[in-house]
Amino acid sequence: MGLLKNMKFRHRVVAVLVLGFLTLGIYMNLPDEASRVQYRTYQKRPLQLGEQSDIIKQWLQVNPARDPEMCSLTGSGPPHHANISTYDLYYKTHFDVKSNGEWDMPVPSMSIYKTERLPKLTVILMPHSHNDPGWLKTVNEYYSDQSKHILNNMVNKLTQFPNMTFIWTETVYFAMWWNEIEDAVKVHVRRLIRRGQLEITLGGWVMPDEASSHYVAVIDQLIEGHQWLWENLHIRPENSWAIDPFGYSSTMSYLWQKSGMSNMVVQRVHQAVKASLFKEKALEFYWRQMWDSKGLTDIFCHVMPFMLYSIKYTCGPNPFVCLHFDFRKIPGDYSQSKGLEVTKDNLEHSAEMLQLQYRAKAYYFRHNTILVPIGDDFRYDREKEWDQQYENYEKLIQYINSRPGWNMNIQWGTLRDYFSHVHKEESNRKFINKAEEFPVLSGDFFPYSDKDTAYWTGYYSTRPFDKSFGRDVQAVIQAADILSTLHYVFYKKWSKKPESKFAVHSSLLQQARRSLGLFLHHDGITGTAKSFVVEDYEQYLLRAWVQCQEVIQFVIQILLSSGKIESPVVFRPETVRKSSVDLPQKQVISVQDSGTTVAFFNPLGQPRQEIVHLYVNSQMLEVISSTQQVVSCQVNPVWNREEDAVVLDDVFELTFLVEIGPFAIMPFVLYKKEYPSFSLYMSSITAINTPQLAVSGALLFNQNRPEPKRMKPIIVDNQVIQLTFDPRSGSLVQVMDLATKNVTKLNINFLIYKSQGSGAYIFYPQGPATLLFPNIPIIRVTQGPLVTIVEVGFEPYVTHTVTLYHQPSHLTSAIFIENKVSIQTLKDKELIMRMNTNIRNSDLSYFTDQNGFQFIRRRTNRSSRIETNYYPMTSAAILEDESTRVTLLAAQPHGASCLETGQLEVMLDRQLVYDDDRGMGEGVTDIKTTISKFAILIEKRTSLTETSRLHFASLSLPSLGVQGKLQQPLLAYFTNVDSDVFFHAVNPVPSSLPCDVSAVNFRSLCDGNLNYNGTSIVLHRRGYDCTYPAGALLCPLSDSSLSFDVLFTDLNISRIHETSLTHTVVRRTLRPTDKISIAPMELASFHVTF
């Protein structure tokens, strides 16, 4: 004002006019007060969602009739369908420990073998080499340094020694080597296979981990390996060899059997459990699924009886004697071997020692054939070892076989030879005495322990960033596979030539699939490799992610434009990964006045309704659907992560409801507006335990006054359930069903275990977990008509976000949780999320899932240490009593436990300074910020049942639907190119898969030249529990009407074969009109040619 006084009058007039116009301009660019009041009081007007779309009307069913066959699974009946259940076996086991800390295994007295008449014993000597695709070196380093030399030596030495044999398992290395060798060498390899000298066992891309791996990814890498073997060697693996995973899942035995394998070998089973099996003469058994009442899933399993698969532990029960029969002597090697060259002077003594060990080993089995593997990690990488092992064993074979009193026949062989002998003996024994049949076992073999106080339950949760990354890559590979197949079939439908692009896409997806397969290796997804090897796995995952995005972007554009616009590709992913060590980031979509197209792809075979979350650059916009309808939407704040309660003024979260068909692409257009649209709902925001809430005056959010010292509970609801939070701790306290007023205690806290010897593999806490957060957290509450969000900041370690959806109905009963975890400063600590409920599981029994495929009952042993009671949770866990079930669904794998009645905890992350002496040679300190996602459902039974007796369980139908959202989320892609050509929905299939049938695989196969070789369709009839309400479903339940002509009405199918899981065996030929019938829980595989 002083400045104006000093001006002349005419100057003052001009200045006032300028200021006036400037103020008017600013005012005109701000929402008027009426608009601000109107949109801050959204609750005074109902949400206008409009009528349900034709997509939803077509499939909506409320409480449909359930299939009696499915319901019988969870009805009355035996707990399992086997002679032996591992659930009971663990409670019969005596965990006796020897003085050296090893678990006690009974050893027979040698005197019993000094009788004059001994039964004929057949001994199969089987050279092998275990080749980890990454552990202490990267996969490429191992290949260059050792694996390719092993394979080169194999060809030369098996040719030189025509009675010697060898087995190989890891297809990843075999394929790398095959691409380098001459055609003449390939001829020799095929000849060795025909002669039976070389057997390929298991045959997947890798020997996968069995705790954290999801069955979808395991099937994918199994198909990849088996298809490669069939294409290049024309063989199908008959036997599985999985000697190094740290425990065994019955899901894997099912997958091996469905792939055409008849027998399997495992090694890392808790040694005390092996002792219990031995007492029942059950170290060999038929492994049956718990839900299988007919024995259709049986596969014969051999459990190697002693501690490891090295020569030290394979000749017999005395490792110090066995060390004398490892004849590798390479200058510079570190070795425990005591083997000496066999000469005339020591031949008799050596043979005597060895044959006694063989006799002793036979004592552990029901028959008179034993398997003696001769090998270890990366063995036979030097030619000299082949000579040393072969020549010395040949001398021993000739001598022992020549001693009639020993009555022994030793021969070189493979797994095929061993199991052939065993099953021949089995047939003879059963003919004489039915009681001599091998037992049937159900269950799994977790946890694994090799020594007292050394339980391998830590790796279930080690390096969760990578476990989550792998699951994300699995989802985008599934999506890219589906879209690539749709691209091929639509191009044929449009009479366009798909071959060139098909080859490009097939190459990208093959690389992506093999990268994920590599990560499934039992030192990859487990997090048990050296840190630089972990970085290598992360680079493989990032490349896979980027390769899939390239395919998805292109195909979405092609299908939306009906093949008109191939280039340039203008669609971009809404979520990106900028590096292999960063979390995925949501792109801020710059919404234009002329419109920004956002397309969503549904990778599920069922229609879905979901609220989507996008980051946009404007709070004032309008959303238009492909049917030209205005879509109601809610705008939420994006909080400044650097400050407690500060709202960003240039980024907003936009949420709205998407209704989309199976395998469909649905576009929406976002328009930037000068004024808020009536379809726009601004959220209400509250900050608790802080004195400030900083929001720009230009923002339309309904701001409640900050509550720095709130004492009243925080209560939010979505008209279906009500959540109550403690304002001082930020913890969720209880959940109320608003229809029945039933209240379920659900108290969520974060705690830490302090390590006293934990490492990458081992979980060994000092004692019970303690609360992590003594400080009062900042709580931010966002409420609106579509979604309510409670965000609790336990800085600097965890940001805990709880989300309730108000629409659609099948998501309103679920509580969605996201934890952003950063434990970089927590040394030698292991962080857990614990739920305390009022579920009355007084026997401490609960369920965890096995690889996302099925559920198995667990029971906590109160007298055992905490780490002994941890189990893998690949995607879900269930707590239940006679009336109520609490289901925890997870988007990524964890370790989990129930240590007290009504309690469930999952381990979120672990930072461990020290090595746990299992070979890795370092701790786990490469900690990254990690996001874990969960959903919780609380369900009441429709009637009391006896399901508590069953050793298995199934999710309810609503839980299956929520699980699909977590495991296969909608994918979003956007473009600012203004073109009507993109603005129509793509609905490639007119019919939905049943709610209980998932498309595990819908991918095009290719030959070695990347030519189309048919389409793999693998369907899974998932189990569901009939004792819980079905609610409103958007899909039918399984019935007799499913067929390929109904599913793919508009797509031309020329041939359909039902096959083995990996498509190497044709079971039968189908017509498109033939009905598809899949038994509950089962997988069905089809090779379809479009």
Automatic annotation (TrEMBL):
Keywords of this entry: Glycosidase, Hydrolase, Metal-binding, Zinc
**Taxonomically, which superkingdom?**
Eukaryota
What are its GO biological-process terms? mannose metabolic process; N-glycan processing
The record ties this protein, via PANTHER family, to: ALPHA-MANNOSIDASE
Q: Which reaction does it catalyse?
A: N(4)-{beta-D-GlcNAc-(1->2)-alpha-D-Man-(1->3)-[alpha-D-Man-(1->3)-[alpha-D-Man-(1->6)]-alpha-D-Man-(1->6)]-beta-D-Man-(1->4)-beta-D-GlcNAc-(1->4)-beta-D-GlcNAc}-L-asparaginyl-[protein] + 2 H2O = 2 alpha-D-mannopyranose + an N(4)-{beta-D-GlcNAc-(1->2)-alpha-D-Man-(1->3)-[alpha-D-Man-(1->6)]-beta-D-Man-(1->4)-beta-D-GlcNAc-(1->4)-beta-D-GlcNAc}-L-asparaginyl-[protein]
Q: Which InterPro entries match?
A: Gal_mutarotase_sf_dom, Glyco_hydro/deAcase_b/a-brl, Glyco_hydro_38_C, Glyco_hydro_38_cen, Glyco_hydro_38_cen_sf, Glyco_hydro_38_N, Glyco_hydro_38_N_sf, Glyco_hydro_57/38_cen_sf
Domain (Glycoside hydrolase family 38 central) ranges = 454-541
Q: Which cofactors does this gene product need?
A: Zn(2+)
How would you classify this enzyme at the top EC level? Answer: hydrolase
GO cellular component: a single term:
Golgi membrane
Q: Which organism is it from?
A: Candidula unifasciata
Q: How is the cofactor bound?
A: Binds 1 zinc ion per subunit.
Which EC numbers characterise this protein's activity in its record?
3.2.1.-
The protein in question is named Alpha-mannosidase
What job does this protein perform?
Answer: Catalyzes the first committed step in the biosynthesis of complex N-glycans. It controls conversion of high mannose to complex N-glycans; the final hydrolytic step in the N-glycan maturation pathway.
- What are the GO MF terms of this UniProt record? carbohydrate binding; mannosyl-oligosaccharide 1,3-1,6-alpha-mannosidase activity; metal ion binding
* Organism phylogeny: Eukaryota, Metazoa, Spiralia, Lophotrochozoa, Mollusca
Q: Where is the signal peptide?
A: none
SUPFAM superfamilies linked: Families 57/38 glycoside transferase middle domain (SSF88688), Galactose mutarotase-like (SSF74650), Glycoside hydrolase/deacetylase (SSF88713)
* Family as reported in the entry's similarity comment: Belongs to the glycosyl hydrolase 38 family.
